[in-house]
Specification:
There is one protein chain. The chain has a single domain, classed as HUPs (Rossmann fold), CATH 3.40.50. The protein contains 6 helices and 6 strands; from the N terminus they run H-E-E-H-E-H-E-H-E-H-E-H. Strand 3, helix 3 and strand 4 form a beta-alpha-beta unit. Helix 1 packs across helix 5, helix 1 crosses helix 6 and helix 5 packs parallel to helix 6. The longest helix is centred in the N-terminal third of the chain and has 30 residues. The protein is globular.
Length: about 230
């Protein structure tokens, strides 16, 4: 009996591993045509969605993932590849606010506040992508993050019929464990979308970033999370 149970457990582990690897490869291939690495190659969009992450690493020092996303967003704006930057990140704690941190660094770099919009309820990639479309009325937007994260973000966008592309900023070295977590995150995203039909934690009224006429002033920032 014990041997039979063990056999089933091993079989389940093999099937699960194959499924995770297959899904990982499928998502990479499916999204590859929509990922850009060169500023000159990426078509312009009205909105750039910058996905949040912690600015600092444990033990001190700047998080290279954060730094590269901010630098990428600055370049895209300065080159006229995006007109607005939607900063989407976690705001679960009073002491931890990714959108505000990003906004401060972008303004220090010379990005006008009128071109910055904040989404405080981007708790997960799924929330950030779907809210960009359903709350901020953005479609055909440019996501800014590392390549492996681009793939999952684009997979989520495509599953919702959202026309998006991604600018892949440099990925720091030694990301073996992060890459393993990413594979599990892709499986989780697939389950959330196609099995659980999950929605963002918070939605709310539509707050379009791009106005119908250029005569209207641009938005400074939008606070839509009940956490505020």
């Amino acid at each position: 009996m014990f041997k039979k149970i063990l056999k089933y457990i091993l079989y389940l582990m093999v099937v699960t591993t194959i499924t995770i690897f297959s899904l990982d490869c499928w998502i990479s291939l499916k999204t590859e045509p929509y990922i850009y690495h060169n500023y000159n190659d990426i078509p312009p969009s009205s909105v750039g969605v910058v996905l949040g992450t912690s600015k600092y690493i444990k033990g001190g020092g700047i998080n290279a993932f954060y730094k590269n996303r901010i630098n990428g967003a600055i370049e895209l704006y300065q080159l006229g590849k995006v007109d607005y930057l939607l900063l989407s990140g976690d705001n679960a704690l009073m002491s931890y606010n990714e959108p505000i941190m990003m906004r401060r660094d972008l303004i220090k770099a010379g990005i006008p506040s009128s071109a910055i919009v904040l989404d405080y309820a981007g708790f997960r990639t799924l929330d950030s992508i779907i809210r960009a479309n359903k709350v901020f009325d953005a479609n055909n937007f440019t996501i800014v993050t590392q390549e492996f994260h681009c793939e999952r973000a684009l997979f989520i966008a495509q599953s919702q019929g959202i026309d998006a592309k991604c600018f892949a900023v440099p990925t720091p070295n030694n990301i073996k464990m992060i890459r393993i977590r990413e594979m599990l995150a892709r499986m989780s995203a697939f389950i959330d979308i196609y099995i659980l039909n999950k929605e963002p934690k918070f939605l709310g009224p539509m707050l379009p970033i791009v106005r119908e006429t250029d005569d209207l002033p641009k938005l400074d920032e939008n606070i839509t999370s009940p956490a505020q």
